[in-house]
Amino acid sequence: MKKSIGFLVLWICGWYLFPGVMVAQQAGEKLKSPLVTEYVYPTRIVWQQGRVTGAERLLKKGIGQASLNNADVIVLKTSGKDTASILLDFGREMNGALEMITGMWPAPNHPRKVRIRFGESVSEAMAALGEHGSTNDHAIRDFELMIPWLGKVKSGESGFRFARIDLLDANAEIHLKEVRMASTYRDIPYLGSFKSSNERLNKIWEVGAYTVHLNMQDYLWDGIKRDRLVWVGDLHPEVSTVNSVFGYNEVVPRSLDLARNTTPLPGWMSGISTYSMWWIIIQHDWYMHHGDRSYLKEQQPYLQGLLKQIMGKVVNGSEQMDGNRFLDWPSSKDSVAIHAGLQAMTIWSLERGGALCAILGDVETAKRCRETVAEMRKIVPPHNNSKQAAALLSLVGMMDAGQAYSTVLSVGGAKNFSTFYGYYMLEAMASAGKYKEAMDIISEYWGGMLDLGATTFWEDFDIGWLKNAARIDALVPAGKVDVHAAYGDYCYVGHRHSFCHGWASGPTVWLSEHVLGLKAIEPGGKVFRLQPHLGDLSFAEGTFPTASGVIWVKHTKDKTGKVITTVRAPKGIRILR
Asked: What InterPro entries has UniProt attached to this entry (predicted)?
C-alpha cells in the first residue's frame, strides 16, 4: 500500500506530456491574449537588511519610466560580501511578474546582479531554494536577475504577494525608482454577489470568488504558483464558482476541451478515473447554466465513448476502476473510503451523462446508464467514517442524509474537512437540512485561513494548524509555528504548498445556492428554484448571473423570524419558490 501511495504522489504531482490531439496554429494567425495587465505598487516594507535608504519611496505610485532625474530613488549598497535586502508586500496575492525601473548609480554603470524571491507568505519569500520545500516548480520564484543602469526589467510570472530583493554584487550600489507587480488577469465583472448580516461569511464569499478569478488565466488553472495546470476534478468547484460569480466565460469550455483533446480514450483525464467522471458532471452543470446545445453536441462522440468505458469497469454492480483511484489528498490512504467514493462518483457521473445522452437523442446509451446505475445502487460500500465518502454517498442517495450528518460529518466539527471535498461535505450537510451548522463550519474552517492572513484559499488546510500559529503576512515570531514551512503533505510539503487553489472556493457557490437560495433547475438557466436558508442571519442579499441578465434577491427576517423575500429577475427567467 505504501508503495502504491508513493507512486500516486509522484505520478500526480509531476506533470507529464499527454498523447493526444494538438491543434496547430494557422500560419500567420495572430493570437490575442484574453488577459490584461495592471501595475500594482507595494503597500508596505515588511523587512530590510544592510545599507538600504529611502525604502518608503517604493510605496509611492510611479510612472513606470526611467528618467535623467535621479531624485526619489531607493539606494541599496553592499560592502565586501554582505548584501543589501528588502522585502515588499503587495497587499494581496496576485498572478504576475516583478518590474523594476532603475536610476543612475555611480560608475561603473554596467548591469548589477540581484536575487528575487517571491512568496505566497513572508516565510516563503525569506526561504532559500530547497528550504522547507521551497521550489521553482511550474513557475520560477527564486532566481537571479541582471538589472540595467537607467532602464527597466521584468521577471517571469508566478503567484505571489511578497517579493524579496537582494543586491548580490560586492562593493556595489543600485538605485531603484520603482518596483511594481505587473499583475495579469481577466478583466471581467463580478456579476454575482453576496452580502449578509455576517461580515465573516461575506469576506469568505469574496475570497473564494477572487481565488478562482486569479486562476482564470489562458486556461482555468488549479493554482497560480504551483499546478498552473488544468486538473479536471479540481475544475468542478471552480466552474461552479464561475457560474455563480462571472457567468459564461470561454475559459471553461476552453479548459474542458483541452482535457478532452489531450486524453484520447481509453485514457483517464490526468490518469485518474474520477477526474474523467468530473468532466461529465461539469458538462452537465455547464449545460444547465448556459444551454449551449451546439457545444454539447461537439462532446457527444467522446461522451458516449467515456460513458461506455466507465460502465465497462462496473462488475456485478461494483466499481472496479483502474488508473489512479483518487478522491482528494486527505483521503488518499483510505482504500475502503476510496471504494465507497468511487461507487458514488460512478453513479453520479452515469446519471449526469445519461441525462446528457437523452438530451442529445442517444437513447441507447442513456438506457445503459440507467440500467448500470440501478445495479450499482444495490451495493453500498462502507464509508469507513470518512467525511469524503459519507458526503458522496449521501449526495447520490445511497446513505440517509441525516445519518451521514449525525454519524460522520458532524463528528469533530471542522476536523477532517478538506479544501476540495469540503464543498461536497457542505452540500451533504445542506441535504440534511443543517444550514446553520454548515455556515458555522464555513466560518471556522475557511475563516481560519483568513485569520492567518490569507487573501486567497489554500490547497489544503487543517483546523489543527491554527494552534500557536503565526500569521503568514509577517516574520514568524520566536515560539510561534510557521504554518507554511511546517505543514503540508504528499506533494505539497512546506513552501511547495499552494496558497491560491481554486478547488477551495466551495463556500462561494454554497452561499449563493443555499443562503441566497438560487439554483438553476432547467437547461440554459431559464428556470431557477428559490429556497433561501438564513440560519442565524438576519438578512442576506445578492445577485446571480444568467444568460438573460442578473437575478437580484434579498431575504430579511421580520420580528417573528419569518423570512420576507424580494426578487427581481430578467425577462425570460422563471423563479419557482
From this structure: 6-hairpin_glycosidase_sf, 6hp_glycosidase-like_sf, Bac_rhamnosid6H
Is residue 539 in some structural domain? no
What backbone torsions phi and psi does residue 366 show, to the nearest 5 degrees? -60, -40
> What pLDDT, in 10s, does the model give residues 400-417?
999 999 999 999 999 999
Here the cell at position 466 is: 491554527
For the chain (length 577 residues), average pLDDT per consecutive 10?
43 42 53 94 98 97 94 94 94 98 95 98 97 95 98 98 97 97 98 98 98 98 96 97 98 98 98 98 98 97 98 98 96 97 98 98 98 98 98 98 98 97 98 98 98 98 98 98 97 97 98 98 95 98 97 97 97 95
Q: Report the pLDDT value the prediction gives residue 526, as an integer from 0 to 100.
A: 95
CB atoms within 10 A of CB 373: 20
| Dist. CA 166–CA 85, nearest whole Å | 4
For the entire predicted model, the pTM comes to 0.94
Distance (Å, whole) CA 47 – CA 164: 9
DSSP conformation class of 109: -
106 shares its domain with 81: yes
Same domain, 72 and 153: yes
Residues 89 and 69 in one domain: yes
Could you list the residue range(s) of the whole structural domain that residue 124 is in?
36-185
- State whether 295 and 392 are in the same domain: yes
Q: What CA–CA distance (Å, rounded) separates 239 from 382?
A: 30
Least Cα distance to 280 among 303, 259, 310 occurs for 303
CATH number of the domain to which 448 belongs: 1.50.10.10
Task: Output the CA torsion sign for 380, 381, 382, 386.
Answer: negative
pLDDT at 463 (0 to 100): 97
Q: What is the pLDDT of residues 360-378, one digit of tens each?
A: 999 999 999 999 999 999 9
- Residue 300 maps to a domain: yes
CA–CA separation, 332 and 325 (whole Å): 8
Q: Burial, 417: exposed, middle or buried (Cβ in 10 Å; 0-12, 13-18, 19+)?
A: buried
101 bridge partner residues: 152, 178
Same-domain check for residues 72 and 172: yes
Helix residue ranges, H only, 384-433: 387-395, 401-404, 422-431
Q: The domain that contains 135 carries what CATH number?
A: 2.60.120.260
